[in-house]
Amino acid sequence: MTTPHPAHIAMFSIAAHGHVNPSLEVIRELVARGHRVTYAIPPAFAEKVAETGAEPKLWNSTLPSPDDDPSAWGTTLLDNVEPFLADAIQALPQLIEAYEGDEPDLVLHDITSYPARVLAHRWGVPAVSLSPNLVAWEGYEEEVAEPMWAEPKKTERGRAYYARFHAWLEENGITQHPDPFAGRPDRSVVLIPKALQPNADRVDESVYTFVGACQGDRAAQGEWRRPDGAERVVLVSLGSSFTKQPAFYRECVKAFSGLPGWHVVLQIGKHVDPAELGEVPGNVEVRDWVPQLAILKQADAFVTHAGAGGSQEGLATATPMVCVPQAVDQFGNADMLQALGVARHLPMEEATAETLREAVLTLTGDPDVARRLKEIQEGMATEGGTARAADLIEAEIPKSVTGT
Fold this sequence. Notes:
single chain; Rossmann fold; 2 domains
């Protein structure tokens, strides 16, 4: 379907798989509808963006790259957030120059792209957030954000962070406090199933609309075939960032190496040498990267870090999950999945060969887990996915552009 009055839509994101990948099918759909879509992205993701038909607008980022060691992100809350502000400040002049004389009609942005909201204000155009993970509910600030920030805000470093954020916003004509600026968009399309959202009944649906997974055709990522004799398959993956866990992988090898009929696909990422795993039996397939969705469509269980992408792929394929979260929103996702009755939340320090094996065997042997997964899978199918996301975005294009 094409639109009679195409718009120029500009998308903004950081260079991170968990932030770029969820938006790609939506971008592809907007291009297919006839819109001109530009996508402001660092060079590492230019090719992936171009494959959607969007035009990459390149800028240089100071954030750790997708292939950097996870330790580059630090360990404290301020360690985690300061790089995003510093990157935003240095990125803004680059983005202003990139769009000089080519200003869009609508800004789309990942939740981490602070310059996007500044630019939308500068250009006087609407901004729509594409959220790849959970969103704030009524009461979120009091229940989560304020307790989390109470101590950092008392420190000199914390006060300096907020002073710098305030000053940057004011320089760009924005009087809003940094917290709602970063965490409370005017309009948001949420690219996760509503089932994964904590306190979903308290989310403002005039701002946030859940469309579920926007997965698309992943054939380009490659296929995977279940080996002959593999009666059951378990995929182990901690995603793309927090993969430097050789001890955990050794426990996974021990957990499943002696199970008759089971085949293990173990993704170890780029920061672990397979030699660190020791002797690996024939039923364990060790890879540095896998076509995750293709495997999940055939898998019986999924040992996951419970990132937003993996969590919804597990739900979309009705695969029982053992969640071993590593960082940020993954702990909340693990709790949500466990509360839904489709997963076990296993803290990293408790993830031994014995507990991993017991969790997988219990989940895969429980008919109530299978029933609940089927119900959620069917519910997700009604959320609209990519087409609905594109409809909602088109509805935000100014009428002066669409002619309606």
